[in-house]
Amino acid sequence: MATPSNSDQSPLLRSRSSSTLGSLSSHTSISDASPNLKLRHKTRALRAVAFVVSIIGALCAGSITVFSLYGHLFQSRLHYSQFQINGIASVMSLSMYIPVPMIGYACDRVGPGPLSFLASILLGGGYGLAAGLYHKGLEEVENGGKGVKTTFPPMVFAFVAIGVGTSCMYLSAITTCAKNFGQGKYRGLMLVAPIASFGLGGMVLSQIGSRILYETQPDGARDVNVFHFFLFLCIVLAILGLIGTFSLRVVDEEDLIDGAVEELERSGLLEGSEVFRRRAHREYGAIDDIDDDAGAMDPARDDEDDNARLKKAWLLNAETRRFLSDHTMWWFGIGFWLIIGPGEAFINNLGTVVGTLYSPSTRSNETSVATHVSIMAAVSTVARLLAASLSDLLSPSPHSQHIQTGFPTSLPELRQKMTISRVVIFIAAAIILSIGTLVLASGAVQEHGERFWIVSGAIGAGYGAVFSLTPIIVTMIWGVENFGTNFGILALTPALGSTMWGLIYSAEYQAGARNSPSLAEGADEDVFCYGTRCYSSTFWAMTISIWIGAVMVLWAWKGRSGWSKRGIVI
Description:
single chain; mainly alpha; Growth Hormone, Chain: A; 2 domains; two-stranded antiparallel ribbon; 1% strand
């Protein structure tokens, strides 16, 4: 198919010089290609500020990953059961992931700034409420009551707010980076920077909690002071959300939208569209006999901002429909669910898994939960950056940042002789993740806490690499202009996986606890579990799940009408 000439281009493309998307995204349509040197410097400064704020915001949003640092204290201090702790963790995970499609949809259409403001309210309020409830529960337990009865329902509500707020802050950060740095040799690394920062946040905040905001027990052991830790997060996240309200923006968004429209038009996917049906068969300002929507897109209208807004909305809606109708997306999404779910469940239950390694008589040799939270966070961060770097250096990349259509314009820039597909790196990361679950399932670390670093390290590395490669693959195949919505749809799967595996693990743990000797003579109920009976079957099943998920992703790439056969560069 020949590329249309300028005279054949649709009215929407020819309106580019006169329209603006500034009103859509906090005046973000500032051209980086402007001949005005001062304006170019301003544009680069805006990108740099947005990038720095994205990194810091994602770092602090990583507070949600340190649940294991204090989750077991809900059990020992407030007398929550394992099901109740997993209930909080699951609700937090669900509230973080379930709203992501709507949050991503809003982020694509109104910009990341308003989402950052919402994150400030939700995270500040959520952690503030959790701090108050924890303090209240401690007082009730000290007075002989049961803090769980009065604190559990509102605590669930607090962690719902925390989950939604984290989603808003995280998605606004990665969407800003995806759209601002969607072009260039290292676009994968720039996208993964806030994702890696999110993982690093777990290590940084766990160290702050365990080394600064801690309390010393009568036996000399240190535990995080949950009340002070929650107050710290409340203040820091509320302030960061407010800063992001004014600094997170997508620069030069109009060119991004117009470039995507051109790509789709060249590929022939716009043929038959009512919006693009009118071609340049008329003089400027003439009115064709078309439907109202297309008429609203007329560049001759006085309201050019409205024209640009409708063009953007049409494009994003069209790309959403194309994303949902792509069968490879469903194979990829299901595979991602089967792989990432076990990792999410392990992170949420790390504290109680470590607690199963030793019986009460040898508890002095127990390894530290904070240590393995830090190991997971550190290894996950390195794996995210390494996977993104390998993706940029070794994998082929399409010439543009827009949706791939199989049209010749999607062919890669050949920078090296040998390339390794991002799918290969993705599957390798999944296998590393399965090694961690396999070692734990085998019982090799039972009574050997010094070996647990193999489990936390492998799961952290595999989880981090898979989570960093997923948004990169989304942007490479389906473009960046609708990234928030597309990635938001896929981000539903970790919530489902985390909830499913969390419930399975809780059921096995509780069953093992009922068959364990009581902690104290005469105790009515033992809520603690020790030994492989508490986790082995669950982690064997997790291992198999990861392997099945890897096969599904491989099928999306090499199977019938897969990415490889459609000429998709990945």
